[in-house]
Every structure is written in C-alpha cells, then in structure tokens.
Design brief:
mainly alpha; 7 strands; 12 helices; 3-stranded antiparallel sheet
Length: about 300
C-alpha cells in the first residue's frame, strides 16, 4: 500500500513539471509565423526543406525575432561562422563571445539557412525524406548535431503541431506580395504583420503610426493607402484599427451570407465597414440606409 501511495504522489508531483515543459501558444510566435510563412514556403519549393521545419527553427532559434542575435545580426537560425566570409556578430552561446553569421535582412538569413542544410554533408540524409515528414526532419536535425539542446527535436515538433505548421508543407505556391514585403523590408524586425481577409491585405495600427510611416514600410503611396481606407491622408490613426492595403470589397465573404452584424457600443458604420473589408457606400446601400442615419446599439446590419 505504501509503495502505491508513494508512486501516486510521485506522479502527481511530476505532472505540473511535465505540463509546464510544453510550449504554450503565444501571439508573438503566431505573428512571426504570419510574417515569414511565405518565405518558408518559397524556400521549400526551391530547396525541398519542409516549410514547417524552417518556420519552427526560425521561431525557436530567434525567439520569434526578438533574440539579441536576431536583432543585431538578422540571424534567425543561430548559424555560427564556420566557413563564413560575410558579416559577423558575436554572442554568448555554448561558449562566451562566439562568432555568428550576420545578414542584411531576414530573407538573407532564410536563404543561407537553406543553403547551409543543402550543402552540409551531415544533413545529406535529410533530403531523402519527404517534405511532409516533419518528425523525421526534426529528429534528423538533432541527430546530425544542428543543436546541443537534448530536446531540440521535441521542441520543433511541439511548435509545428501547436501552430499547425505542417499545413504549409503541402503548399504548391506562396503569396509573393507578403514574401516580397518580408524580403525587401526585413532588416526592420519591427515590421507590422500582414494579414489577409476577404481578398485583401491588412495591418493593425500601432502607436505613432501614420499613413506616411506605413507607406514607407509597405511600399505603397500614402495617398493611395488613405484612399483605400476611405480616409484623408492627414487623418490621425488609432492603435488597433485596421488599415487595408488595397481597395476594399463591395461585400463580406460568401461565408457571411445570411449573417447579421449587431451593433455594439462605440461602433460606427465606418468601423464596421473596416471590420469586414467593405466599402462604406456599399454597407449603407445593402442595408438601405442613408449616410445621415444615426446608428444605434442593437441595430442589425446585412454584410452581403
């Protein structure tokens, strides 16, 4: 009886440690994935490396782009200087002040990561695996000595499963606009994540953003950006609001057919139009409302 009791106590004691060891979902990881998934897919189609593995390594090695190594040297994969003739940076890792490769932007880091694996003799057997065998790739990377962390393979697999990254391993194409955005502007690790909805791209406004600052980052005229969002180019932007990167649609997606939006406190026809990527005049038109209608909490609005 005593042995059973001790066994039960030991299991209960160990359980919280096991649970806490699991990687938990966080928004910083998801933002990083949204930002770089198209580059990872591009690399997969080019070099036959699973996009899920590239993303999992990138997010884990770089701390979702926030590590000192990434901020100082745009190094997203922790690759050291062995055989490297380009720019370098120094960072404490297994030893103090180790030499790491440095890049001009994140795209260069992703490209070099692919070439590093393709050209490395010890990673040769990985390319015999299917691009959909992310578990085999994760374990193969650890076995080949990519990282010293004994749970490296498990960590990659946990990230892939938690964020469902294996769906990208089946991709036959990628969004060239987002890939170009990340490539051309990725020297700035503080980029806005670009999202897609209803056939359009959008970002969420942060503190101090203006149409001009967004235009500089996104490579879109600030006048066009304001026009796409039915605003004046001099308007102040409010943190959290949605800004679309192309002309808005006439109605919400097909999945919203028959659904209504019930007005909540603080909402306006404009904020609702932005929420669903609908041009304001069409939101009024489909609800048979005039522009001077005073919206009330509880009003129901058709979306298509």
């Amino acid at each position: 009886m005593r042995r059973k009791t001790l066994f039960f106590v030991a299991i209960v004691f160990l359980m919280p440690m096991t649970v806490s060891a699991q990687i938990k979902w966080n928004s910083a990881y998801q933002t990083y994935i949204d930002q770089y998934k198209d580059i990872a897919i591009e690399q997969m189609l080019k070099y036959h490396i699973p996009a899920s593995i590239t993303l999992a390594q990138g997010v884990f090695e770089s701390g979702a782009g926030r590590s000192e190594l990434t901020r100082k040297g745009n190094n997203h994969f922790g690759i050291k200087c062995h055989g490297w003739t380009g720019r370098t940076t120094y960072h404490d890792d297994d030893a103090k002040g180790e030499c790491f490769r440095a890049y001009n932007n994140a795209y260069e880091s992703y490209e070099d990561h692919s070439k590093f694996l393709v050209s490395g003799q010890r990673y040769r057997n990985l390319f015999k695996l299917s691009v959909t065998d992310y578990k085999g790739w994760a374990r193969g990377l650890k076995a080949a000595g990519y990282a010293t962390n004994p749970r490296y393979a498990d960590k990659l697999i946990e990230i892939i499963q938690l964020y469902k990254l294996d769906r990208y391993d089946k991709a036959k194409s990628y969004d060239k606009f987002i890939a170009r955005h990340s490539r051309d502007h990725a020297s700035n690790n503080n980029l806005h994540a670009i999202h897609t909805f209803n056939g359009n791209y959008y970002i969420k406004v942060r503190q101090s953003d203006t149409f001009r600052s967004l235009a500089d980052e996104l490579g879109i005229s600030y006048r066009k950006l304001a026009k796409y969002n039915e605003r004046d180019k001099r308007d102040e932007l409010v943190p959290g609001e949605i800004i679309y990167l192309a002309k808005k649609a006439k109605r919400a997606p097909k999945s919203y057919k028959g659904r209504l939006h019930y007005v909540r406190a603080g909402e306006s026809m404009y904020s609702i139009a932005q929420l669903y990527n609908i041009r304001l005049k069409y939101l009024y038109k489909m609800n048979k409302l005039s522009p001077d209608y005073q919206l009330k909490v509880g009003d129901s609005l058709r979306l298509r």
